[in-house]
C-alpha cells in the first residue's frame, strides 16, 4: 500500500514537471522575475564580482549594459560576457541581452582591440551602402565578444550646431538621408542578430542643452516634428529596428504636462511611438540617473511612471548601483501587488522582451571561446570597410572653377597645419613640385604672409583647416588667400565653410582622424573620385545631399 502511494506521488510529480516545462516561458516566471526582465542594469568592473553574481542569480534581470569600467581586450570582454550569461542561466534565468554604446566617433565604449569607427556624420555622407557595411562590421565585433545589443545608431538630426551633446554623433541634417543611412546601418547589424537601438526619440538634435545635466524643453510644433525629427525614427521602425530609446526631453507639442520628459510620457511612448508609428519592438528609457529626470522626480517614482507610460526596458545608468536597482525592482513589484500597475502591463512588456530574445536567437545562448576571439573579430576585413568608408564619405561640396582634381598643367601650393604633418606625407606622393607652407594651428600674421606669398606664385592654392569655425586665426588665413584659385579642405567641422564662403572649391572630411587625410589627397590629385555627399546643410545653396563629382 505504501509502495503504491509513493508510486502515485512520483507519477504526479513527473506529470507536474512535464506540464510546467510545456508552459510558455512567461507563465513559469514569478512576478519578481518578470519585473526584473524589464531592467537593464550596470555591473561595474572588468570581471564579474561576487556582488554582481549574487544580483544576477537573485534577480535575473533582462539586460546588462557595459560601460568604460567593463572595457578590456576582446578576449577579456568575452570572458566577462560569458560569466554574466553562465551565472544567470546557471540560476535558471533567461539569457541576457548584453548592450553597449558603440556608436563610433566620440562615443566608443570598447576601444582596445576593436575597430575605431569614425563619426557617424561620415557614414551619412558615404550613403546607405556604406552604412549597411559599417553596421554589419561593428556588429560582427560585438557578437565576437558576446555582446548582442548595440545602443546605436543615433537617429537625431544635426539641426542645431550649438547642441552640446548630439552634434558629432548625428548622421546629418536631412531627415530622409539620415533615415536611409540609419535604416541601412540597422539592417546591417541585425542581419547577424545584433539588436540595434535608435535614439533619442522623438529627437534630441535641436536642443541647446544636454539632458545629462538638465531637462531640455523643445517647443517645436507637431508638424515640424512629424516632417523632420520623426522621419528617421519612422524609417528605422519600418526597417524593423529592434529597440527605440526615448529621450529625457520635454516636448510641449506632444504632451502638455509641464516638465514631463518623453521617457515618462504615455502620450509619447504609447500614443505616438507604439500606436501612431506602429512600433512593436522594445521601447527603453535613456539612463534614469540623468539630471533631466532626477531634478524633477523621485527616482523610484520615475521608474513607476516609465512602466505605466508603456516602457519595456528601464535603463539603469552607470551611476545607479545594484542596491538601488534592487529597490527599483522591488518598488515595481510592490506597485503591481498594490494594484497601481496592472500585471497585464508587466506581461505585455515581458512577452515583447522574450519574443525579441527569441527573434535574435538569444535564448539559445552558447559560451564563446576567448582563445579564438581574433578569428571571430574579422578585423582585417573591417579595416577594408574602414578605409572605403573614409574614401566614400569625403565630399567635394562644390568646385566653381574646376580645380579638383588639380589640373596637371597648373602649379599648386598647399597650406597646411604643421601639426598635421601627415598631410604633406600623403599629398607629396602625387606631385613633386608642390609649394609647401606649414603654419601653426593659430597662424599669426607672419605665417599668413608666407601663405599669401606662396599663393601669388601658384595657379591653385589648397588650404587645410581644422575646426576653423571656432578658430579666428584660421579664418583669417583662408580669407587672405585669392578666393578664385583657393580650394579649402575642412578636416574636422564641415561648418568651416561658413567663415570663408567665397573660396572656389570646398571639401569636407567630417573628421580629424588620420585616415581622412589620404582620402582627401587622393581626391585632390585625381587618384580617386569624390563620391561623398554633404551630410548637412551649410547654406541655402549648399543643401544636405548635394555634391560636386569631379
What is the gist of this entry?
This protein is of the alpha/beta class.
Q: Layout of helices and strands, plus pairs?
A:
Layout: H1 2-22, H2 31-37, E1 39-42, H3 50-59, E2 63-66, H4 74-90, E3 97-100, E4 102-104, E5 107-108, H5 120-126, H6 128-144, E6 149-150, H7 175-190, E7 195-201, E8 217-218, H8 222-238, E9 243-246, E10 250-251, H9 266-276, E11 282-285, H10 291-294, H11 299-309, E12 314-315, H12 322-337, H13 343-359, H14 373-377, H15 379-393, E13 395-399, E14 412-417, H16 422-427, E15 435-439, H17 445-456, E16 460-465, H18 472-479, E17 486-490, E18 505-508, H19 516-524
Parallel strand pairs: 1-2, 1-12, 2-3, 3-6, 6-7, 7-9, 8-10, 9-11, 14-15, 14-16, 16-17, 17-18
Antiparallel strand pairs: 4-5, 13-18
Helix pairs in contact: 2-12, 2-13, 5-15, 6-7, 6-15, 7-8, 11-12
Describe this protein's structure.
By secondary structure, the chain is an alpha/beta fold. It contains 19 helices and 18 strands. The strands form four sheets. Strands 11-9-7-6-3-2-1-12 form an eight-stranded parallel beta sheet. The chain has a six-stranded mixed beta sheet with strand order 13-18-17-16-14-15, covered by helices on one side. Helix 3 (about 50-60) links the parallel strand 1 and strand 2 (about 65). Helix 2 packs across helix 12 and helix 7 (about 175-190) packs parallel to helix 8. Mean pLDDT is about 95; it is low at about 5-20.
Amino acid at each position: 500500500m505504501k509502495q503504491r502511494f509513493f508510486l502515485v506521488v512520483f507519477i504526479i510529480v513527473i506529470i507536474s514537471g512535464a506540464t510546467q516545462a510545456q508552459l510558455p516561458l512567461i507563465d513559469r516566471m514569478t512576478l519578481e522575475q518578470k519585473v526584473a526582465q524589464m531592467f537593464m542594469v550596470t555591473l561595474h568592473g572588468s570581471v564579474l564580482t561576487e556582488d554582481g553574481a549574487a544580483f544576477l542569480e537573485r534577480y535575473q534581470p533582462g539586460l546588462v549594459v557595459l560601460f568604460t569600467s567593463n572595457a578590456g581586450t576582446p578576449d577579456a570582454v568575452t570572458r566577462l560576457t560569458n560569466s554574466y550569461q553562465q551565472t544567470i542561466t546557471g540560476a535558471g534565468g533567461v539569457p541576457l541581452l548584453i548592450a553597449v554604446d558603440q556608436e563610433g566617433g566620440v562615443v566608443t565604449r570598447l576601444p582596445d582591440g576593436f575597430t575605431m569607427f569614425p563619426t557617424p556624420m561620415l557614414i551619412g555622407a558615404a550613403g546607405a551602402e556604406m552604412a549597411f557595411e559599417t553596421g554589419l562590421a561593428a556588429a560582427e565585433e560585438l557578437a565576437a565578444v558576446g555582446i548582442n545589443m548595440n545602443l546605436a545608431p543615433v537617429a537625431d538630426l544635426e539641426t542645431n550646431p550649438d547642441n552640446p551633446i548630439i552634434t558629432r554623433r548625428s548622421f546629418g541634417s536631412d531627415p530622409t538621408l539620415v533615415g536611409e543611412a540609419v535604416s541601412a546601418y540597422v539592417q546591417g547589424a541585425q542581419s547577424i542578430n545584433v539588436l540595434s537601438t535608435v535614439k533619442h526619440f522623438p529627437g534630441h538634435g535641436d536642443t541647446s542643452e544636454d539632458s545629462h545635466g538638465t531637462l531640455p524643453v523643445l517647443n517645436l510644433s507637431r508638424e515640424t516634428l512629424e516632417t523632420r525629427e520623426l522621419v528617421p525614427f519612422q524609417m528605422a521602425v519600418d526597417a524593423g529596428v529592434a529597440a527605440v530609446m526615448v529621450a529625457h526631453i520635454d516636448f510641449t507639442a506632444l504632451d502638455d504636462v509641464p516638465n514631463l520628459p518623453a521617457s515618462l510620457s504615455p502620450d509619447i511612448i504609447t500614443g505616438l511611438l507604439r500606436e501612431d508609428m506602429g512600433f512593436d519592438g522594445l521601447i527603453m528609457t535613456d539612463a534614469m540617473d540623468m539630471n533631466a529626470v532626477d531634478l524633477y522626480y523621485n527616482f523610484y517614482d520615475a521608474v513607476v511612471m516609465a512602466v505605466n507610460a508603456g516602457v519595456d526596458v528601464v535603463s539603469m545608468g552607470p551611476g545607479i548601483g545594484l542596491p538601488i536597482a534592487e529597490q527599483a525592482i522591488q518598488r515595481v513589484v510592490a506597485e503591481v501587488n498594490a494594484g497601481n500597475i496592472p500585471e497585464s502591463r508587466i506581461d505585455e512588456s515581458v512577452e515583447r522582451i522574450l519574443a525579441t530574445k527569441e527573434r535574435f536567437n538569444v535564448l539559445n545562448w552558447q559560451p564563446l571561446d576567448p582563445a579564438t576571439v581574433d578569428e571571430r573579430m574579422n578585423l582585417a576585413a573591417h579595416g577594408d570597410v574602414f578605409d572605403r568608408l573614409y574614401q566614400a564619405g569625403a565630399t567635394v561640396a562644390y568646385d566653381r572653377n574646376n580645380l579638383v582634381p588639380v589640373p596637371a598643367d597648373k602649379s599648386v601650393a598647399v597650406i597646411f597645419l604643421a601639426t598635421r604633418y601627415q598631410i604633406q606625407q600623403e599629398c607629396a606622393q602625387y606631385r613633386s613640385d608642390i609649394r609647401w607652407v606649414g603654419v601653426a594651428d593659430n597662424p599669426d600674421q607672419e605665417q599668413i604672409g608666407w601663405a599669401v606669398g606662396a599663393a601669388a606664385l601658384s595657379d591653385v592654392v589648397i588650404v587645410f583647416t581644422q575646426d576653423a569655425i571656432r578658430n579666428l586665426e584660421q579664418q583669417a588665413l583662408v580669407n587672405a588667400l585669392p578666393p578664385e584659385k583657393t580650394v579649402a579642405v575642412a578636416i574636422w567641422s564641415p561648418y568651416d565653410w561658413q567663415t570663408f564662403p567665397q573660396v572656389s572649391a570646398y571639401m569636407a572630411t567630417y573628421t580629424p582622424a588620420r585616415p581622412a587625410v589620404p582620402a582627401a589627397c587622393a581626391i585632390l590629385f585625381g587618384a580617386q573620385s569624390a563620391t561623398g555627399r554633404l551630410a548637412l546643410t551649410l547654406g541655402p545653396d549648399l543643401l544636405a545631399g548635394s555634391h560636386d563629382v569631379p
